[in-house]
Amino acid sequence: MAAVVTSKGRDVMTGRMRGSSPTQAEPLNLAWGNNPNSLTAAVTDVALYKEASEARVAGTSSQQTTTTANDTYQVTGTFTSAGGQTIAEVALGDSASKPFATTWATAPTGTGGTTGTLSASYTPANNTYIQCRGEVMQVTAGTGTTSVTISRGVNGSSAVTQSNGDTVTAGNIPGVTTVTNGSLLFHADHGAQTLASGDSVAYTLQVKIT
Description:
The longest helix has 12 residues, at 7-18. The chain has one helix at 7-18; strands spanning 3-5, 29-33, 57-58, 60-64, 72-80, 85-93, 101-106, 115-118, 128-132, 135-141, 147-151, 167-171, 184-195, 200-208. 6% of the residues lie in helices and 41% in strands.
């Protein structure tokens, strides 16, 4: 299990501190996901591995004390499962809405392929970023179509073999806000929780400043 403040999350925090323009929204929105490939969260992540169908939850934030007064940012929130599923990841973002996401109809070849076909037209602009499994890629061409050209293993991630049907989600790397709803502060994988419809999971997520 890993729980990380993403590279983009550092950007979110410093932007929040200095009141960047446009003003950085508080990253208190919880997102949960299925993590179908049992992956480990990494600072390079820009998206969940597979965000679940439920709407994001606006959490309740507070300052907490771990070592010194108010050195920890805490967000609590509860999800209720809409159906039977396995949940194995959680994240904090600055938007209550989800970013663009689809699946590979035809995944890039191996770790060197630079083209792929999506199951839905790519709506963000060219030169924005996507994540599949643990790899972040830049979409250099193909906006408005299902056929995209990509640069592999960006934002410090490594190229990995992907499969048809894998989830592809748009997100923002540090210094970039082009993808709507695409900025994550925090991402964690956790033990698989097998849920039935109506089951609830309460999260308490903390980011300690050290």
